[in-house]
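Colleagues,

Please find the record for the two-part complex below.
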Amino acid sequence: MSEITLQIDGRKVQAKEGMTILEAAQSVGISIPTLCHHEKLEPYGACRICTVEIEARGRTNLVAACLYPVEQNLVVRTRSEKVDKTRKMLLELLLAHAPDAVALQDLAKEYGADKARFEKESSFCILCGLCVRYCAEVKKKNAIGFVDRGARREVAFIPEIASKECENCKECFPLCPTEALQATFLLTKALMSPSPTCDSE
Amino acid sequence: MPKVNSPAELEKLRKGILSKRDPDKPCIAVCTGTGCLALGADRVVVALKEEIKKHGLEDKVDIKETGCPGFCERGTVVVIYPEEICYLRVQPEDAGEIISQTILAKKVVDRLLYVDPTTGEKAVRESEIPFYKNQMRLIIGNNIKLDPKSIDDYLVLGGYSALAKALSQMPPEQVLEEVKKSNLRGRGGGGFPAGRKWEECRNAPGEARYVIVNADEGDPGAFMDRALLEGNPHSVLEGLIIGAYAIGSHEGYIYVRQEYPLAIENVTFAIKQAEEYGFLGENILGSGFDFTVKMHRGAGAFVSGESSALMTAIEGRVGEPRPKYIHTAVKGVRDRPSCLNNVETWANVPLIINKGADWFAGIGTEGSKGTKIFSLVGKVNNTGLVEVPMGITLRDVIYRVGGGIPGSKKFKAVQTGGPSGGCIPEEQLDMPVDFDELARAGSMMGSGGMIVMDEDTCMVDVARYFLDFLSDESCGKCVPCREGIRQMLKILTNISKGKGKEGDIELLEELAEVTRDASLCALGRTSANPVMSTIHYFRDEYEAHIKEKRCPAYVCKALISYYIDPEKCQACMICLRQCPVGAIVGDKNQIHVIDQEKCTKCGTCFEVCPPRFSAVRRISGEPVPPPVPEEARMIARESKEK
């Protein structure tokens, strides 16, 4: 692994090849906000809150810090007008779904995000996928998964697996950035759902 | 069929096939591509075969079921060789006349010919029809000449000669250099230089690497990839094998969307034939190069056309895009170097190898070389697939090839690039069509879809329509795409329902910017194009909707009303009878009145009111005049007595 020197917020940072911008920044105590990131899980790049501005090969770009691999002489700005504007909008979009989530409210204060900007669609879920990925990658159970796509995407427990696995685990509950109660609700819903049986008359 | 073991054997085989074919023997080519099949091309074939049998001509006339030549609007298309007589809109009932007149009496059936709508002149040959005459059909031109299930047909047209040339006369590096020099850019949307992608894949570390044909043509309205795969699958396959040789790949995939059953059938058949002939497999044409290819069926998601999502799907997982900070050419399928190009891109490769990079680079513009196939659809006279040189103006495509706008309507905009393309207005029509110019105009080459819109199209509604499509087809993984599209769609829907607010346009622009800049893949990054481009070129329409609650094109139902002008109504009962919801009150000699409460704004009354009366009016942005009092509705007619 060769050493790479890059610049983050004007500071020279030493990093190893293969590291992400987020890891390099964290290694020197520069904080970049994240919502869908977790050390135990593969980088996912869905919430885009870790968006930072980079300058490489003469071009400026917005990239996800949790995924972008460090490069020699890369210039990174973790805060800029553009970065802040992007994070503010992303937060406002998420607050429409989970207006009272503590993790979102703290960030909203920092970036001036208005939780009433978009009409409420309280699903209480921001689809960060922490629960889904933790169950798949760490527990290797796949008791919870994504259903449907696009604007209709949601998270659901799979009753057949959940009824066997979840009662003694629940390790995904505290991972939820919006409300662990949400997970409880979803799990209950899944377990309450009647199993498909044939009605005989 | 014994395997072909060398380029010399291939030429011998080709000569053998040619020697058995009489170029003067009449051949009736019937397009049996999906478009013509939907119009009954299979029944035309059956009818022609029956007629041939009836006249005992089985040995004297050939029938060829071919792929799509592009003029779908006039299907079923039939071309009769060797004269190249082109018949359009052929029905099974025409078979008798075609055989007795054209084949036996050598006479042209006038009524089946193309008639120029402006000059009234008839065109006998395909090459005389303006739709074809103004194209440059390098890729799709062979479709009508070959039976896609016959590898011999492809060989007769020089098929696999480029592969033989590459394998026997050019080291892989030279093939790569040739493609790089040609400046062939990816036809699937992004326009990334194919040669550079090939080189990156070739040089990426690792033993195994893949080449992939992207035939997940998900754009509603674009069907050039389907036409190529259905009509000339070997041309795509030949390009792929040449690419594999240049890149050093021994395994390939053709990813075809499940919704293209005929393409899947013909590709599968072509792979089998190519294996039998030895163009696939071990030691291809005695060169020592091995290559196999597998067909992979898509499972019905627009986003799977995105390269990383497609590769995830090949691995057997849900087709969701992944970040491409490390290119898929370096880390693709199973983290191995994978070179993915679109169907049309691969189909260009044999031409470049045969005719040379300089020839190819001589066609097109500075930055975009060769030709491009567009799906020309919408409010244009000649809809279908058109292949034109890069750099042709939009005006030439729409008016010279497409024959202009039907019904003497006014052109409003052309939407290029598929659902996430942009709308280009009249004043930009003389812009040369290429990758960079389209991007500069706020649109993109994308899939090559080209939807022509006339004055009856509402641009707010167009943006809403495409965002609705994208909100369904986004994978939903990343926030800016999923939530940005959701909110943009909400705002657009509100505007079209007359609930638009001050500040909506600015909020749309802000959302569009974040969605473009922060989304994970190209679907999200381009999803705002329909919004951005319509706001840019048609801001006045947005403002009319928001401020005046008026839809200038009379499309948004919540903002329009139909009204019968009492001064003009002749109480003819036509609209009254045709109104599907019985919203029109009136009687003989009684002026008709629309009950606004009941009216569903379907527009039937407006369409059926006889032009000599033109009594039905569309109203938007102003109140509907109160109905004439019942007692004043009688029409006093002059006596009809003579």
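The domain at 459-547 of chain B is CATH 1.20.1440.230 (de novo design (two linked rop proteins)).

Comments are welcome before we finalize the supplementary table.
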